[in-house]
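Notes from hallway chat w/ T.B., transcribed later so I don't forget. T.B. wanted the structure written out for a chain they're using in a teaching module, and asked if we could keep both sequence and structure tokens in one place. Agreed to drop them here.
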Amino acid sequence: MKKAILVLFLVLYVGVSLAQQQGEQKTSVAVMNLESLEGISSGTAYILSNYLRTQMVNTNKFTIVTRENMDQIFKEQEFQMSGCTSQECIIQAGQLLGVRKMFAGSIGKIGLTYIIELKLIDVESGKIESAETEECAKCEEDALLVSLRNITSKITGAKIQTTSIINANAKKEQNFQNQIEGNIWKKDNSEMIFIPAGKFFMGSLEKEGNSNEHPQHEVYLDDYYIDKYEVTNEQFAKFLNEWGSDKDTNGLRMFYEYNLGIKKVGFGFLPSKGYEKYPVINVTWYGAKQYAEWSGKRLPTEAEWEKAARAGSVAKYSFGDSEALLEEHAWFSSNSSAL
């Protein structure tokens, strides 16, 4: 899990602008669980509902009733929250909670597109004050976290700024939403995966791994995006052609020609026929770094790469401790032909 020279990614920080003037009283609200429709499991909807509550808190516009307090009050009042999706039921829930407004909505999937609907209901008048939708086409479930941030911004008016930690001189000008569509990074057409913020155990247990991987320790990382697949010969050749050279900004060589990789042809660069979609090899660290900067990303740190590779596992490998299963998850010398 140490070498990540060809896996390029983008780390995000989400800053939320203050929408309340100092001294202004915040509106009391509660956020109902999102109704899970076709294509979304109840477990996923539950997780996304909690994430939505966090985004509402971060707007700094409301006093949010916590999920724990909601459960306690509903239990005391013998109120069934599950299945409470009608407007009448939502208003009743708001009255029991003693809040002024309620957020409620649903999430489902039609074909390849996820659709999130969210509405803000005034408990006293019973009217829907505002309603918004957010679509996420051809994206995986983890990209819905971005969609929830977007719909929070739409319905509350709070500006959520998402900027990358790379290209420091361009931070203020970059707009993350213009760089990505669904979970596809536009510059190099790479598919990306969202890694949520949180802690993980980095390194290896005693008597496992190398000495520099000890002791195993807990590390916290903010959320970020990472490429799902390795950079291909086709992608790297496109970069070289746009860059116009096989040397980086410091004149250092970025790659070496290879008959199954990229070749220099005239004044340009071409991937070998039939190997366009293969992972690019014979790339130097300088080449990987320059590609990352060109595409609007950067190389991962050791901790960021290891957290993504572990996929939430605390075992020796992401799939468990048994090396017998390794062939089902990776290519290495024992199960691949020498070229």
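Follow-up for T.B.: The chain has eight helices and 16 strands. Might be a good example for the class.
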